[in-house]
């Protein structure tokens, strides 16, 4: 049976009378006595007289030939220099070089693995994977494209980078970066760099430069986003520069957001801007307004030409040309235009209070059409009057006094308002103004002195022309000097840290300032420095009480010598505090002691005694009686030694009492 395939004939068996190859009988081609071809190391070299001729390869000089069944292998088995060269699976191959420096030239060989050492030249080398060490070379190279830029997609005259991830569908559009898309009708637009940015819809002449997940949409003409992440612009001629999640939307044209996070300009807020900060908002016709930094600040509802700088949760609502600088939860609203809040907490200007301001403080409010008014500092102040300045307290360091031809001074009414008050003089009284004083003087013809009042308020004069008097209610003076007889219903003097009253002296202790100091000089007589009188049905007392309960506290009456101080040469009568744990006595112990020389206790009255008592105040409580004749101990005397007239007494029985009726020495 024979088979035909591709103009050839093949089969296991073919039988016929005469077989032809073309017009030539096959019998003339094939000889009947052809020798067999063995499996040795032989090669067909020609035919002689119809007989196939073979030559055998014989290795010599260290070269060996091996037939492995499919190939002839030539290699060197010499022990001297040089190595064998083996070629597998190759066609049209040959070897060259010398015995010690062999070369292999391979044409169109297919090898599973090839390892090259030394110098090698490859005119053309193809492999599934090339390695550098154990690393595929494809890890070092990107797949090359035939062109860096190619024609865009559906848009005409458009260009995009040739990286297989971009879409350029608008006319005259240029797109680079990675996975960026310029949508249909996004004509004349530019996208450079960045990742997953979008220009969607009819957004002509718009640009996105860098950043990722940024979007220009909603028919935004001439807009731009530069950098940042997840920013979105829907307003004409607007810009977002950097930041995260910033939005310009709903016809808020010609506006800008620079940096920050989650800032928004929306709803016809033209010509406005937000610079940095977080969660700041310009909303609903916030024309030509600006927010700079801060957190959760907002300008809303037809608030034109307004601004907020810094702070947190501040707001301007329906108020033009107003501003808030810093602070927390401050608000200007209710058509309160041309107003300002500077710092502070929860301060409010509302209800058409124009041209007004709050500076600092907290929970202050200008309301009820109180225009042209100011609150300075303070807490919970409500301003309801126009053209008024409100302060909780006013400390004026320097006041510039000038000649006052109107004889007027400032007066405070019961509502705390300051007014100018005109002074008028009665018969015989003259009022004159100086740089720092108002002088009221008597102008009559009889004798008498004038009266001068400095810095007083609510003042009037009385008395006769010869004995004038000045009665002052609520006066405040830096210094007051009194001569003659004076009555003070109440007199208080104040220093920086304490009340301090000085009488007839200019000196006081700076280490431990006296609260009251009286100084009297009597060179040739005694001085009653301080005298108190009482007319009481029980007792009159001079009492000092220390209300501090510390463990070193006490109440003391002290007399000090001319050479004494807080340590030496004084005598002290006092009582310890309820928790005392100091150098003398225990809690609530009374005492009298001296730090001078000898301490004298006695009775200088003739025929009178000294009595020491305990456990009550009756005569039976006297324990020691000292008179000019006798010293009597009315109790047990306990001592290690008792000396009588220079000699110790013999010990007495325990519990026995010793009575001495004569002089005790």
Strand content: 25-35%
Q: State Rg.
A: 60 Å
Main sheet: which strands, in order across?
Answer: 13-14-16-18-20-22-24-26-28-30-32-34-36-38-40-42
| Parts with pLDDT < 50 across at least 5 consecutive residues | 33-39, 79-84, 87-94, 445-460, 660-665
Main sheet: strands, sense, barrel: 16 strands, mixed
Please give the share of residues in helix: under 10%
For the record, give the distance between the C-alpha atoms at the N and C termini, rounded to a whole number. 170 Å
Give the overall silhouette: elongated
Distinct helical segment count: 0
Average of pLDDT: 78
Beta strands, count:
59
Which class do the helix and strand fractions yield?
Answer: mainly beta
What brief labels describe this structure?
665 residues; mainly beta; 16-stranded mixed β-sheet; 14-stranded parallel β-sheet; 59 strands; disordered C terminus
